[in-house]
Amino acid sequence: MHQHEEARVKYEKEEMERLEIQRIENEKLQKLEAKDLERRNEELEELYLLEACFPEAEKLKRDNRFLSQWKHYIECDGSPDPSIAQEINTFITLWKEETNETLEEVIEKSKLVLNLIEKLKLILLETPPYDLQGKNIIQYQESVLELQELLHLKFNRATEILLRQASTLADLDSGNMEKVIQDENVTLYIWANLKKNPRHRSIRFSETQTGFEIPRILATSDIALRLLHTHYDHVTPLSPVLTPSQEHISTVTDFVKEEVKSVQTAVSKDLQEENKQENESNSVHEEETKAEGQGDVEEQMCPVQEEPEATKYEMEMKLLSETVSAAQELLLENASEKPYFLEENEVDLCQFTTLGGVYHLDILELPPQCKPMKGWMIVEILKEGLQKYTYPPETTEDLEAENVFPPIEVTLEVHENVIFFENPMVARWDAEGKQWKTDGISNVSYKSEERLITFNLETFCPVTLIQDAHINMPYQSWELRPLDVNKVLLTITTVFTELQIQIKENLCMLASIKVNNKNHSSILEEKWMTPVSFIIALKKAGLNIFPTGHSHLYVVINYKHPSVEVKAYRQMALLSSAFAFCWSKWNTACESKKTVFQVREHLLKEEPIRNPNWTLLMFSGDRAQSLKINESSDAFSEALKEETEFHSTLYHMVKDFASQEAMRAVRRSNCQFVDSVCHMLLSTRLLSYS
């Protein structure tokens, strides 16, 4: 009995001590929470001032867009401005009228055409969704499609002109004609069957492994084989432009209307006080609105007082700020379902991506040949132009078909600037359904060392190579660290590769790439590009680390709430010139409205430390705190680190332990640099996809 009593007393005492400790802890937490709430507005106001760099960067981008249009106008180099419908339409009409261009001439002209298409696609991607008007989107996309179709038509016409002279260009050994043209954007192989030798069934283009094994029936027919490898893809339908939903637009426009109202009242009040005459006040207000669209020159001449000018700038920045954050959130919106229903054997373009361009494979009927006559060349020109040879013919006896019209073996060289992490898959273009399909292709074999792919094709049509778009997702880890003033290095490690990306001002560059732990050289290395162009280039090279709104349907992700993600990326970008950030395993352990990552001050004068001391931060968009646990702890806990406090922003959180020098560097960051870092973080979605 006595022992029981002792144990009970001991237990009660321990319990009381535990409760007391807990009470003190809770009290401490409540005090800290109260302190955090008390200074929240002050901290958010300071953050708002720092985040003014985003609308400033957007204004610079806008000004640059106008400037480049103006530069183009002044240069008068004869090339059209693709964003002006009249200019591009005139260009297309005039080019349509040019006939009898040779392949070499078409390839030369294609450089300008591809440049115009790239420009239009860039406008659609670089202009914030809220600035894009529906009619402009339609106009630009129609121009792109027209240019693509016309370019292909020109290749067909030039091929016909070449094939009419096939007999005069015949090879002395084989008696057939063969031509290979290599250029930076296209590689063209043409073979004309002039001898019709039934034993000549293996066609290899000189100095390459590219070629065909053709059946006897083709070896004895009046045909030409053409392989036009465009290093670009003008076959896949254009991807839809990211546009905000109706409700998104209305929230931004409502905000804009409110702002305009309040600022207008302020402006007119100021003016009334200064001038005391209402008429004058109105005319000034009209002047001012006119001046806004006409650049700085008029603004200086405008008889407007200082105050309203400043107010107007403030208003413009406030609106831009709203537009920018709405556009940033739009980048992180996850679609709830796939955009369309897939047919059997259809390639899902949300899951796969075409790489290395398109191989247009055609069997053509040989046109009538030029004949010399009394010092002249005479040629019969067919009204219908270049004709495709139907193989296999549409009407055949079923029993015969397989033997007489077997599939054709094709060997292609894989584009050297593209990385395949797994063996590529082959897809063919179904012109009727306007989709890539995987049927009608058999016996695919890939030699990765020689970069050769061989397969059998039932009928000739455009083919392409595809790879899983999410092969490098989710990422295994990431790190963002300062390299210099306004220059950082972003390292992303995936199952197959490690990418190092440098970011400075409004530019990005691929610094290095490792594939399976070996350094890999890429044509993109050391090339500085704007973020949007850089992302396009990386995707084209097979290095896709940029999730789309549909990616979460194909990748197991660590979902984080978009508003939390946007706030985290914006604030990380703000701090990136003096602080390093990196991945934490605990980010998967906390809920979707919280993110966990590691941070440390990183001043450039320091020697690199072998085992740097990282602080573990948890951030929920409106509260930041240091965690007691570290990366090697056994279990996750949200317990607050001793001697630390809650803050409303990451900026004020790191300020608690950072040097003055580091905070000075943060405040001096260049706005374009911060914007580019933020764009890269939003595009890679490190917190959700690792």
Backbone shape = elongated
Low-pLDDT runs of 5+ residues are 273-305
Beta strand count: 23
Biggest sheet overview: 9 strands, antiparallel
* Distance between the ends: 59 Å
Physical arrangement of strands within the biggest beta sheet = 19-18-17-16-15-20-21-22-23
**What structural class do the secondary elements suggest?**
alpha+beta
**Overall pLDDT level:** 86
Biased composition (Basic and acidic residues): 270-293
Region (Disordered): 266-298
Pfam families: Casc1_N
Protein name: Dynein axonemal intermediate chain 7
Characterise the protein shown here.
- Residues 3-199 form the IC97/Casc1 N-terminal domain.
- Keywords: Coiled coil.
- This is Dynein axonemal intermediate chain 7.
- Pfam families: Casc1_N.
- With 690 residues, the chain is an alpha+beta fold.
- The protein is 41% helix and 20% strand.
- It has a 9-stranded antiparallel sheet with strand order 19-18-17-16-15-20-21-22-23. It has a 7-stranded antiparallel sheet with strand order 1-2-5-6-14-10-11, with no helix packed on it. It has a 5-stranded antiparallel sheet with strand order 3-4-9-13-12, with no helix packed on it.
- The radius of gyration is 32 Å and the shape is elongated.
- It starts with a helix and ends in a 6-residue tail after the last helix.
- Mean pLDDT is 86; it is low at 273-305.
Layout of helices and strands, plus pairs?
Blueprint: H1 2-50, H2 53-75, H3 85-97, H4 103-126, H5 134-164, E1 177-182, E2 186-192, E3 202-204, E4 211-213, H6 216-219, E5 223-230, H7 246-275, H8 278-292, H9 295-301, H10 306-331, E6 352-365, E7 371-373, E8 376-378, H11 398-404, E9 408-413, E10 425-430, E11 435-437, E12 441-447, E13 452-457, E14 462-468, E15 477-484, E16 487-493, E17 497-504, E18 507-515, E19 518-519, H12 531-540, H13 562-575, E20 579-582, E21 595-601, E22 615-619, E23 624-626, H14 650-655, H15 660-667, H16 671-684
Antiparallel strand pairs: 1-2, 2-5, 3-4, 4-9, 5-6, 6-14, 7-8, 9-13, 10-11, 10-14, 12-13, 15-16, 15-20, 16-17, 17-18, 18-19, 20-21, 21-22, 22-23
Helix pairs in contact: 2-10, 2-16, 3-5, 4-5, 7-8, 7-10, 13-16
